[in-house]
Amino acid sequence: MNVIKKDNxxxxxxxxxxxxxxxxxxIETYPMMRLIDVLREELLLTGTKEGCxxxxxxxxxxxxxxxxxxxxxxPIIQMEGKKIVTIExxxxxxxxxxxxxxxxxNGGAQCGFCxxxxxxxxxxxxDKISTPTLKEVREALSGNLCRCTGYMKIFxxxxxxx
Amino acid sequence: MKTYAxxxxxxxxxxxxxxxxxxxxxxxxxxxxFAGGTDIMVVLNKENNPYIGKTFIDLSxxxxxxxxxxxxxxxxxxxNAMCTAGELKNNPSIxxxxxxxxxxxxxVGAIAIQNxxxxxxxxxxxxxxxxxxxxxxxxNAILTIRSKKKERKIALSDFYLGYKKLDLRSDELLTSxxxxxxxxxxxxxxxxxxxxxxxxxxxxVLAIAATTSGKKSExxxxxxxxxxxxxAASTLKCRKTEEYITNxxxxxxxxxxxxxxxxxxxxxxxxxxxxxQYRRKVSxxxxxxxxxxx
Lengths: 162, 294
Hints:
Number of helices of chain A: 6
Number of helices of chain B: 11
Order of helices and strands of chain A: EEHEEEHHHHH
Largest interface: A-B, 37 and 33 residues
Radius of gyration of chain A: 17 Å
Order of helices and strands of chain B: EHEHEEEHHHHHHEEEEEEEEEHHH
Number of strands of chain A: 5
Oligomer: heterodimer
Distance between the termini of chain B: 55 Å
Distance between the termini of chain A: 49 Å
Radius of gyration of chain B: 20 Å
Largest sheet of chain A: 5 strands, mixed
Strand order of the largest sheet of chain B: 4-5-10-6-7
Structural class of chain A: alpha+beta
Strand order of the largest sheet of chain A: 2-1-5-3-4
Strand content of chain B: 15-25%
Strand content of chain A: 15-25%
Structural class of chain B: alpha+beta
Number of strands of chain B: 14
Helix content of chain B: 25-40%
């Protein structure tokens, strides 16, 4: 259980402005609050998952100004003026919809916990290489862990043109 | 929700001068530079971490710390401290002229980590297992360190004084790293040995740059840089080994002797990732194999 030693915190809340999934957003919070906590608990965008808290599993992946990042490692103050895109933001894009259909058809998702991160890493890849090789897919997803599928069905979900 | 957010402050300087001014003013509580955050944010997960009650200074607002410049005529690369591993690994000039750096930055974590992790942070965090310092040392890296009143330069190979002990005062900031392309006839070798292909902390990370002359049967090493991580308290420049093998003809005898000196120069330990014995054996093998290929 976390014990806070001081009652009146010396750290003051700040107003931070950024865009999330195209929507202008303003929140007032502690500057060292993690981006993942702001997304999930303040903005109720729970598609972004917390798997490890250390940037090792990729479940918390988001795009920040188009750059793939682990939201569990980012203090919210650094998001001032940034454009953030979460899984909710890309779920309605054609590319992502097709990809998710492929995941369903090919068994690329079981519990689904790693899936948002996998989709974001895949989008990051497909935006640069539209028909990647298996090697390129493996490398692009090397920052994403899955405990259920054994990865092969995730890879075929991405490569197969169903 | 992490409660440390109420206990740790962070300030954002307007520019480099502002940052150096703030660093020069701190008294009882040093301001701690915060770069990409990929190492610090993990430490903050612990309830009683050393940053509780402290204040970070956010370096991400400082434009002067971004970007890198390749001087083609002089073959010098100047990298500002906040350049990310991702920016460096993807750059064609770096891939062509400094392949060990491109390889090292490609080995840092995985893509999402590389996009935030900075080269300055990798140096200052001073993990003995750090991926970029061995490559940087082989390129004769010189650090530029600034404070409000002064600027100084120091070789990266002189910068580490012990385990996470740096030649750096609390009012100073690492601003850039300059590396030098080796001469022609230099063969380079970089290898990170880890449990997996990505997202691994190294068991060994070895970089070598050897400039040679002479025919295959009479190869001579004119210059050699050997730098290795995870086998000492900090990234180690193997000066004794370098001194021995320089200006020596490569024979089975000299290679065997060099390997012995190398083995005595490193001091690997047992830890959760590997054993002293494994580290020693693999380091020796990699080193010897490289010399045999020259």
